[in-house]
Amino acid sequence: MESGTNNNSPVIEKIQSKEVNKSNKLNKSNQLDLSNQVNTYTPKENSPVVIPSSPQPQKAGLEINQTITNQIATNQTTTNQTTTNQITTNQITTNQITTNQTIPQSQINPSNAVPDSGDLVVPAVEVRIVGATQELEAIIHEVIKTQVGADTNQRQLQRDVTAILNTGLFSNVTVSSGETEFGLKVIYRVQPLIVRSLSLEGAKALTYQVAIEPFKSQIGQPISPSTLKNAVKEVNKWYQDNGYSLARVLEIQPNPQGALTLQVAEGVVGEVKFQFVNDEGETVDDKGKPVKGRTKPEFLRQQLQLKPGAVFQDKVVRQDLQKLYGLGLFESANVALDGDANKVDVIYKIKEVGARSVNLGGNFNADQGIVGTFSYRDQNVRGTNDNLGVNVQAGRRHLGFDAKFTSPYRSSNPDRLGYSINAFRRRGLSETFDDEITLANGDKVRQGRFGASFQLQKPIDDWNTTLGLNYKRTSIRDRKGNVTTKDELNNPLTLSGTGVDDLTTVSLSATKDQRDNRLNPTKGSVLTLSSEQSIPLGLGNISMNRLQANYSQYVPVKLFKSDRTQVFAFNAQAGTVIGDLPPYETFNLGGSNSVRGYGGGKVGSGRSYVLASAEYRFPLPVSKSLGGVIFADFASDIGSGDTVLADPAGARGKPGRGLGVGAGIRLNSPLGLVRADYGITDRGESQLHFGFGHRF
């Protein structure tokens, strides 16, 4: 008989999940569902621990290349006496044969031992396993062919030894046999592998400190497949709990010295790609060519946290998607994967909004007559999210314009500040001085402004902060453009008393934006805090500080069945002015951006204010471009109207508080979101309002 020892790397089966066996390939066409993806990793039941194939242990045969000095076997005639022929390793004793020995065949065939012929079989009446735990004994019984009641022979015992070694769970195996009048007794003596250490292979996210915890009970103990399987489950659970949805344990490789190697695949990112999609959601056009976008892929890569070589993590991808939406350039953004658990390409499929628009038109204005308008807007100048907007209005008596260029802060270049430049010239009817009280010549009060501002922008922690220097000159004029100092009741209209005031301010604002989409949010919130301190220069020598806070919250709801999102939106804001307050700088309440149903400034004009609005936004089934809104607005000047110079609100009978409710329509157009709202006030009045973008 022969024995074997685990001198070569054993061939053992991988501990891995059925999911990995069936498909380790990620479908390129499928989009990643970050909210529900779970990777279960269940080891094969009752299977031994194994590693990839390595050279098989040398097969012992009848050719033995060593001389034995002791007697090989003795023949005895006593009835029922058993003579044993043992297989062992690393020692030479009487009645034992060690591998790599040479013995004449006649010397290894005692009359009452297992016959040397490979074809001669003897029934096994007893099969014992010595030195194994109950778990390992069960594994041995599964892999050996010699079973009680079944026939066996010398070659089969040899194959059994090889099979036991090939599990990789044992460092040494011997077999001994003895013949009785009923058959053969077989004893397998085994030495289980003692686990000494653990090492990691292919791990970036998984640290040794985390990995060793579930394996601690195995160190210094005989190897236990069930313990290793439970440890693998713990490691895979750690991956899932920490958002590494592609990561998993591939196998455990033990070596003859008891060192375990834990091999993992963590979903290392290969390439980060971008594909633009059209209105049909396709990445190719009718001609089979890729859909082209204006945004430069290199610019987009600079905005993302996820980089090639990093481990794929759900949280990082969610943050990157939110950042893409925050650019205001995309209507939709999704993630697809291409690859397997070892290496995966991440593909962002994005649909751009109409970032560039030109509008040429005209309208009739009761104040100025026929007015021609021109507007140009580009939210993606040079494909890098720089913004340019120009509006020009030309009438018979006035030429107005408003131009602004913004280059936002780039997190990919933290040493560079974002900035914006704005210049304007405007003229229109005053919301503070409405037509209830006119000028001395009977004209309505017209308010003209021109000026410029320069602002720097940089995020601090989760806040987007802006520091600005602003200048504007405000003049009160009649219809012909003549400067006027007082109204028909002899009330002053400017702080300087000349009809013209200069206001230079330093402004500071901080915004914490946690919305999922800046243009059309469905969840999250945004909070803005601001302060504007004047520098007393020029006409009026104004010294004031304006404080404001503005908060909006968005909550997805589902009041009726629809595949499009329904949203409950809430906005609350407040403000006050400390110090000098020119009447045209009051908080004017009422209008399309305040209390709908009231005209602009018709609720009140105060030093302080509060405003609250709630909207239920829902899709309309007639078209994907249409949506509906039900709203309610409330505002109050908190009794501060009479603290303003000449009390313009009190003189005009403004109530100081107002409520408006109503409904509206939203249309997604090439020019952006167009809104129309019809509001009814608590005083029974009503008004139709038009505008661009959501109310908040």
Keywords:
Ubiquitin-like (UB roll); disordered N terminus; elongated; 11% helix; 16-stranded antiparallel β-sheet; 5 domains; 696 residues; 32 strands; single chain; mainly beta; 7-stranded mixed β-sheet
How would you portray this structure in words?
The longest helix is centred in the middle third of the chain and has 17 residues, at 225-241. The chain has eight helices and 32 strands. The strands form five sheets. Strands 15-16-17-18-19-20-21-22-23-24-25-28-29-30-31-32 form a 16-stranded antiparallel β-sheet, with no helix packed on it. Mean pLDDT is 83; it is low at 1-25 and 27-118. It has five domains: 56-67 and 82-192, membrane protein fhac (Ubiquitin-like (UB roll)); 197-265, membrane protein fhac (Ubiquitin-like (UB roll), Roll); 268-352, Ubiquitin-like (UB roll), CATH 3.10.20; 355-407, no CATH class; 408-692, membrane protein fhac: a member of the omp85/tpsb transporter family (Porin, Beta Barrel). The chain is mainly β and 696 residues long. β13 and β14 form a beta hairpin.
Summarize, please:
With 696 residues, the chain is mostly beta strands. The protein has helices at 18-22, 134-143, 154-166, 208-212, 225-241, 297-303, 314-326, 648-651; strands at residues 4-5, 25-26, 84-88, 96-98, 122-130, 151-152, 170-179, 184-192, 197-201, 248-254, 259-265, 268-276, 330-340, 343-352, 356-365, 369-381, 386-394, 399-407, 418-429, 446-460, 463-477, 500-513, 524-535, 544-557, 566-579, 587-589, 604-606, 608-619, 626-636, 657-669, 672-681, 686-692.
